[in-house]
From TrEMBL:
<keyword id="KW-0677">Repeat</keyword>
<dbReference type="InterPro" id="IPR002939">
    <property type="entry name" value="DnaJ_C"/>
</dbReference>
<dbReference type="GO" id="GO:0042026">
    <property type="term" value="P:protein refolding"/>
</dbReference>
<dbReference type="GO" id="GO:0031072">
    <property type="term" value="F:heat shock protein binding"/>
</dbReference>
<dbReference type="Pfam" id="PF00684">
    <property type="entry name" value="DnaJ_CXXCXGXG"/>
</dbReference>
<feature type="domain" description="CR-type">
    <location>
        <begin position="55"/>
        <end position="136"/>
    </location>
</feature>
<keyword id="KW-0143">Chaperone</keyword>
<keyword id="KW-0862">Zinc</keyword>
<dbReference type="InterPro" id="IPR001305">
    <property type="entry name" value="HSP_DnaJ_Cys-rich_dom"/>
</dbReference>
<protein>
    <recommendedName>
        <fullName>CR-type domain-containing protein</fullName>
    </recommendedName>
</protein>
<dbReference type="Pfam" id="PF01556">
    <property type="entry name" value="DnaJ_C"/>
</dbReference>
<feature type="zinc finger region" description="CR-type">
    <location>
        <begin position="55"/>
        <end position="136"/>
    </location>
</feature>
<keyword id="KW-0479">Metal-binding</keyword>
<dbReference type="InterPro" id="IPR008971">
    <property type="entry name" value="HSP40/DnaJ_pept-bd"/>
</dbReference>
<dbReference type="GO" id="GO:0008270">
    <property type="term" value="F:zinc ion binding"/>
</dbReference>
<dbReference type="GO" id="GO:0009535">
    <property type="term" value="C:chloroplast thylakoid membrane"/>
</dbReference>
<dbReference type="GO" id="GO:0051082">
    <property type="term" value="F:unfolded protein binding"/>
</dbReference>
Length: 285
């Protein structure tokens, strides 16, 4: 599958904390007319095992704050003009005095009437003066091959709109991956356990093994020991952002010993045992 160039506008975040700082405007001082950046938005997506391995294009529906079309993001009712805040006289700050046993303390505080902007206005009916409205949008998300549970995709500027000309936040898509009943993932490798009979392990055989590419023949060499791991090169997970690089599928061979033998089988095994003893005796000579 050709995933194309996903570096733009999607950046994959490997660091856990990167991008967590975009809490635009939270706790910030609302100084006069200061632009406030929009907050980042988060979205969880669940992929099946193969979608995470090979990548997928998904349409997702996100809800975030967008600039209000009625007031063009200003928050003021169209046709009205902002006026100087009467509480703070346009300063954006008020001084409050508190009398304590130690004397009178003065504290400078952000004006609560105008939120520190120094202006008041008739609020827009659509957004109640915020300048932003909550809207739902469908966006097409390109998930690159090789993502894993906990991977985060960053979609620039698709978060919440800013206020007073602030830039929009980013959208972070957090990936969860459903497990596969037989294939286990270990980073870029895929782990699988196969069972072969002791006879096949001794004589060698070819078995069919499930892989993310479908059923693939795997040669079990003669004399394979129990718990041997066979490597199916490049049948693993594509390496993120590195085209044509793939991990391996590691197949652990479980050798099955029969619990019951037919009388004929038992006779043959006993003959084999005698033969084996004879061999040992010969080699000791
Ligand atoms: Zn509005
Ligand atoms: Zn004010």
């Amino acid at each position: 599958m050709d995933m194309g160039d996903f570096s733009n506008p999607f950046d994959l975040f490997e660091s856990l904390f990167e991008g967590m700082g975009g809490m635009g405007g939270m706790g910030g001082r609302a100084s006069r007319n200061r632009a406030v950046d929009g907050q980042d938005e988060y979205y969880n997506i669940v992929l099946n095992f193969k979608e995470a391995v090979f990548g997928v294009e998904k349409e997702i529906e996100i809800t975030r704050l967008e600039s209000c079309g009625t007031c063009d993001g200003s928050g003021a009712k169209p046709g009205t003009k902002p006026s100087k805040c009467s509480t703070c006289g346009g300063q954006g700050q008020v001084v409050s005095s508190a009398r304590t046993p130690l004397g009178v303390f003065q504290q400078v505080m952000t004006c609560s009437s105008c939120g520190g902007t120094g202006e008041t206005f008739s609020p827009c009916n659509t957004c109640s003066g915020d300048g932003r409205v909550r809207r739902t949008k469908r966006i097409s998300l390109k998930v690159p091959a090789g993502v894993d549970a906990g991977s985060r995709l960053r979609v620039r500027s698709e978060g919440n709109a800013g206020r007073r000309g602030g830039s929009p936040g980013d959208l972070f898509v957090i990936i969860e991956v459903m497990s596969d009943p037989v294939l286990k993932r270990d980073d870029t490798n895929i782990l699988y356990t196969c069972k072969v009979s002791y006879i096949d392990a001794i004589l060698g055989t070819t078995i069919k093994v499930p892989t993310v590419d479908g059923m693939v023949d795997l040669k079990i060499p003669a004399g394979t020991q129990p718990s041997t791991t066979l490597v199916m090169a490049k049948k693993g997970v594509p390496v993120l952002s590195k085209r044509n690089m793939r991990g391996d599928q590691l197949v652990r061979v479980q050798v099955e010993i029969p619990k019951r033998l037919s009388s004929e089988e038992k006779k043959l095994i006993e003959e084999l045992a005698d033969l084996s003893k004879g061999k040992t005796a010969t080699s000791r000579r």
